Amino acid sequence: MENIISVKDVTFYYPGEESATLKNVSLDVYKGEWLSIVGHNGSGKSTLAKLLNGLLFPNEGTVNVADFTTANQEDIWEIRRQVGMVFQNPDNQFVGTSVQDDIAFGLENFGVPRTEMVKRIHESIERVGMQAYLNQEPHHLSGGQKQRVAIAGILAQKPSVIVLDEATSMLDPIGRVEVIETVRELNEKEGITVISITHDLEEALSADRVVVMKMGEKAAEGKPDDIFQQRELLKSAGLDLPFSLKLSEALRQEGIELKKGYLTQEELVNALWTLA
Amino acid sequence: MDISVKRLEHRYMQGTPFERRALHDVNLHVADGTFLALIGHTGSGKSTLIQHLNGLLKPSAGSIQMGEMVLEAGGKKQDLKPLRKKAGIVFQYPEHQLFEETVEKDIMFGPLNFGVSADEAKETAKKVIELVGLPESVLSKSPFDLSGGQMRRVAIAGVLAMNPEVLILDEPTAGLDPAGRVEIMELFYDLHKKNNLTTLLVTHSMEDASKYADDIAVMHKGELYLHGKPSEIFNQREALQQAGLDVPETVQFLLKWNEKSGQNLTLSAFTIDELARRLSESLKKRGK
Amino acid sequence: MLQNVIIGQYYPASSPLHRMDSRSKLIAAFFYLFIVFLANSWVTYGLLIVFTAFTIASSKVPLRFLYKGLKPILILVVFTMLLHVFLTKEGDMLYKAGWLEIYEGGLIQGIFIAMRLLLLVLMTSLLTLTTTPIDITDGLEHLLGPLKKWRLPVHEFALMMSISLRFIPTLLQETEKIMKAQMARGADFTSGPIKERAKAFVPLLVPLFVSSFKRAEELALAMEARGYRGGEGRTRLRALEWHTRDTIALLLLFVLTVLLFLLRS
After folding, report:
1. Among 3.40.50.720, 3.40.50.300, 3.90.1150.10, 2.60.40.60, what is the CATH number of B3-247?
2. What does the pLDDT look like over B2-24, one tens digit per residue?
3. pLDDT digits (tens, 9 = 90+) for A89-127
4. B110–C186 CB contact, under 8 Å
5. Which residue from A136, A147, A107 is spatially nearest to A123, judged by alpha carbons?
6. Chain C, 122-141: which have a CB under 8 Å from a chain A CB?
7. How many structural domains comprise chain C?
8. How high is the ipTM of this complex?
9. B100 CA: distance to closest CA in chain A (Å)
């Protein structure tokens, strides 16, 4: 598969800190995939996210996006255009005084002509289903709506990758679904690559691939099916188990002979049915 | 402390063009020692309701009785301090309220405001910092040098230091990682049992509601929509869905199983272990 | 509590004045500040009053709303008027009671000064009532644009303004939230001696500062992630459009100025 981002042997220190936040991390992100990065607080996953679009720079190693590299100062702007970031706090990334002003912000920075800007704003706002709110002020929007505006702002820049840096962790359940469904559609229909830094295991379950971060190192990488079977690994990385796996486990302890831990409720119901 | 809310109505910005009714005809009784979960989606009126319970908002109509004290619409001004001392609120993201130079001073803020002596407040600070699972050495640190999770614990300690009889928790675990979430909830639950508190938990997590609550109140569009034992509430999936909510995952799973197997199993508790027990029982019976 | 505060006083409506370009309104208001001082007779003041009344009428802002905004400064207007009435000793004496003497010149001057103040305040309030703060910012950025040549940070200033405007409601919500949290911990913001009360605000201000800094940091990062690198090479979505009505308005103002020059004594 074709790489869109490759991280090679990256080590990163925050200035003034003695231990490295990221230690020798290598990672390939494939074009069009949904990659979830999970790990406990302080595992380095958010730092990793900020290295992907040149907000931070590695002390050792390289980060490449398509044909560009963050080591090259001239490439940074193209990298930031291609790799859009949605941050955790919906309020602190809303720059404009209204929805359309906010979507325009990135376009203005990249010097897009006004007529083209208007076209792209309308196009991208529709893709996140917020067209009814074009002139709305941010304090009248819910958290989920603000995050969708942030996504529209990124879409308008015609990106190839969207990075969600715990973008749903401050939202209520409805907001969370809104945002994830929006991004999922972009991923499936338009082939935009998604990298999601998250605590939400149910979301990670439906990813194409999962990376587990632990104490600044990459502890594991693979398909959700494989990763979530490794109970000890998840526990040591400070992660919870998804519901269906926990239930599989509990059923086994009750003496029900399941072949493996099942990841979804449907699979588990079916497996139980064959036993009955 | 018994809590009794009668015909409560609240209007924001009353008398302006922006007037908005946030609560309407809410009647709710919470008996002393109850752990009540208050659920409902954003904007349903949960936060507005709990702010009435220690006088931060005044009723536009109706009344609230907290123990002996009665707060009425249009009632005369009264000293709210005794009430606020007894009913502690842990707000959403409580770490945002930290302000003192040291953790100790911040924890002492509440007790000192309520007339406790400095020595006594210091003693209390030591006790509560341990209670929230932080070492005593943290007391002399600046709260702003701590990690986000530690700051949350310090803020919680600041509320517990007032030794409240009623504990009101507004999504106390929002934004924490899964391990932190469980620890904080266990902490509150232990305290609830040990000190015989009356606890109100505002939450979006049906799992937490089912795990800890004796009673569940569901808010929807500013009204009290459902109120009852968890087993009663979680039997009404359709009603919950209409309020933008759902049943806990254990119930969701059981419903899927019932549909597949044609059985009609129910749960008395909503933990995964209980679900596994019910399922295996039923499977074994069939096997015979 | 704080939600009753109405910021910027913008009165939403669709009037000819609302639809004017913010640049022409800014120029006109600024210009008006000067020509008000040209008036020095009943005729010239009458002219200004007619012009101002015409502007108010074309703004569709209800008089009641205008009056509410005027109320706080009415005391000042009356005070200045009385000061002139009692202290200017010109022309015929009209009234005398003990040490109190009122002269005709004083009375006329008092009335003129009061009118001048009222006219000034009315016109400037009309500017903010019919123009959103963000439009005013845009207008200022355009008008001050030439100053960039002298390295004045006009773009940065305008961005700062617009971000502040964007965050005012957010900070108000936050203030209310922290206030409530501290009140729940027994803080009292409303009673006690002044010194005590000032101290009581520390638990409110420190968290507000801390969170504002955190917001600023996160916002800066988010802006950088979206390719912000200063005003250089930036395009703008918000476009100001100069219409015929703007030209007409400025022409009217010009005619008024000429008339004032001709008619003043």
Report:
1. 3.40.50.300
2. 999 999 999 988 877 778 899 99
3. 999 999 999 999 999 999 999 999 999 999 999 999 999
4. yes
5. A107
6. 134
7. 2
8. 0.91
9. 25
